[in-house]
Amino acid sequence: MCSRNIKISVVLFLVLIPIFAALPHNHNLSKRSNFFDLECKGIFNKTMFFRLDRICEDCYQLFRETSIHRLCKANCFVHETFGDCLKVLLIDDEEISQLQHYLKVINGSPYPFHKPIYH
Ligand SMILES: *[C@@H]1O[C@H](CO)[C@@H](O)[C@H](O)[C@H]1NC(C)=O
Ligand SMILES: *[C@@H]1O[C@H](CO)[C@@H](O)[C@H](O)[C@H]1NC(C)=O
C-alpha cells in the first residue's frame, strides 16, 4: 500500500517535470515600454506608439539620465518632459503636429504640450 503510493508519487513527479519545464518562463519582455505599463487609454497603434517611444529613447540617449527616460513616458507621454525632449531633439513643427495627433490617438486625450515658440 505504502510502496504503491510512492510509485504513484514517482510517476506523478516524472509527469509533472516536463509540464513545468514546458510552462512559459517569466521572460523579461519589458525591455521596451509597453502600452499598458504606461497606462495609455487610447487606441494602440504600433507605428504611432513606437514613434512616441522613440522620442523618449533618443532623448534618454542624449542625456543618459534615467529620470528623463521615466518622466518622458510618464502618464503615457503626457508630461512636460516629453515637450522638452521635442525641443532638445529639434523636432520640427510639422512633425510636432503629427506627434500631437499620435498622442491624441494613443493617449485618448489631446496633448497639452505647447509648440516651441521661435522668435
Ligand atoms: C525586466 O527588466 C527591467 C529592466 O532591465 C527591470 O527593471 C525589471 O524589473 C525586469 N522585470 C522582471 C520581471 O524581471
Ligand atoms: C497607425 O498609424 C499609422 C500612421 O498614422 C497609419 O498609417 C496606420 O494606418 C495606423 N494603423 C492602424 C492599424 O490604424
TrEMBL record:
Location (main, coarse): secreted
Signal sequence, renumbered to the chain: 1-21
Keyword Membrane (UniProt): no
UniProt protein name: Ion transport peptide, isoform C
Keywords: Cleavage on pair of basic residues, Disulfide bond, Hormone, Secreted, Signal
Record-linked PANTHER family: ION TRANSPORT PEPTIDE, ISOFORM C (PTHR35981)
Subcellular location(s) of the protein: Secreted
CC terms in the record's Gene Ontology section: extracellular space
Record-level GO BP terms: circadian rhythm; circadian sleep/wake cycle; drinking behavior; locomotor rhythm; multicellular organismal-level water homeostasis; neuropeptide signaling pathway; regulation of defecation; regulation of eating behavior
Gene Ontology terms for molecular function: hormone activity; neuropeptide hormone activity
Domain of life where this protein originates: Eukaryota
UniProt family annotation: Belongs to the arthropod CHH/MIH/GIH/VIH hormone family.
The keyword Signal belongs to this UniProt entry's keyword annotation: yes
Disulphides: 40-76, 56-72, 59-85
The species this protein was found in: Drosophila melanogaster
